[in-house]
Amino acid sequence: MGNCNFRSETTETNLTLTSNLFKVNYAIGKGGFGKVWRVEHKKTKVSYALKEMEKVRIINKRSVQSVMNERRLLAMIRHPFIVNMQYAYQDREKLYLVMDLMPGGDLRYHIGKQRRFSEAQTKFLISCILCSLEYLHENAIIHRDIKPENLVLDYKGYVHLTDFGIARLWQPENKHETSGTPGYMAPEVICRQNHTVVADYFALGVIVFEFMTGKRPYQGKTRKDIRDSILAKQVQIRSQDIPAGWSAEACDFANRLLQRKPQHRLGYNGIREVKDHPWLKNTNLEALLQKKLVAPFVPTTKDNFDQKQVSSEWQDEGEPVDLQLVSVQNMFAGYYYDASMQPEQNNSSVPTEKIHN
């Protein structure tokens, strides 16, 4: 049985998709399993982000399920405010994921430089995130890792959601799914309770709070510290603490998203109540989705990433893995994907942009 699967896997690694199709320009990021490169498709001249992931590191970090889960979910979705998958392939040593290129960098990079965003900038960014969340939630997908690192900008200043490694199709019994980033995880997730898409709205509230105040509402050095902080008290922005240049409506929006009990949280009755909040009432979401609005924060044309972080090398060394074993290669069976060979998806009337050099 294993030999049959191995032959299938061998065929997959020899399909027409290989790194020879792309011209590698330079590294633009670094993840837990490898670097992200800016590449150009030699035939079409379209630029993409190519994420390479070392199979040995994936296995040592016990992340095979996460990596394969992301690949499966990305094949199901396509939206103008999501970093969409265009190709996926592998060789014996690595997996390769070719995604939309987002030259504007992630929001963690920019918040590190700016410390805070203005209210107008935050409202625009949050509106983009809401559009992507509405699409995911309509398709019963919980992202579960909404944070500045996973929100990346295109050259116009529109934000796109990425990293679906711990995203899941919603199931009623999911209290065992407790992965996430402490500080952005909803209380029901960090306390190992069943959760719904409303968990993503809590993270949205954390981001508004952070962009407004320059810090996260619940802090701590460990997951336990943050859990204890959440259980200790309900954080709220008081009217006297609203920063200059921010409105009471923005404060109320953040406070209602940060409610510890999901049934009290804005969005519990559906995303419509989030979109209808007074803070967003004048936002033309249709024009936003069509990218007809001018973003109040537009990244510079230069590289928007930390070159020091990209060029750093890993200090940890995992256990050796024999990549010639049938059982090892079978872990990654079915990774191949080519968006150009897929039936047209009707998830949105807005096409994703192609970036040409």
What does this structure look like?
- There is one protein chain.
- The chain has 357 residues and is an alpha+beta fold.
- It folds into two domains: 2-103 and 304-356, Phosphorylase Kinase, domain 1; 107-289, Transferase(Phosphotransferase) domain 1 (Transferase(Phosphotransferase), domain 1), CATH 1.10.510.10.
- The chain is 33% helix and 15% strand.
- The chain contains 13 helices and eleven strands.
- The chain has helices spanning 2-13, 55-60, 64-76, 107-114, 119-138, 187-190, 198-213, 223-232, 248-257, 271-275, 285-289, 307-311, 326-330, and strands at 22-30, 35-41, 46-54, 85-90, 94-100, 141-142, 151-153, 159-161, 168-169, 337-338, 355-356.
- The strands form three sheets. Strands 1, 2, 3, 4, 5, 10 and 11 form a seven-stranded antiparallel beta sheet that branches. It has a two-stranded antiparallel sheet with strand order 6-9.
- Strand 2 (35-41) and strand 3 form a beta hairpin.
- It starts with a helix and ends with a strand.
- Mean pLDDT is 89; it is low at 1-11 and 347-353.
- Belongs to the protein kinase superfamily.
- Keywords: ATP-binding, Kinase, Nucleotide-binding, Serine/threonine-protein kinase, Transferase.
- One of its GO terms (molecular function) is ATP binding.
- This is Protein kinase domain-containing protein.
- Pfam families: Pkinase.
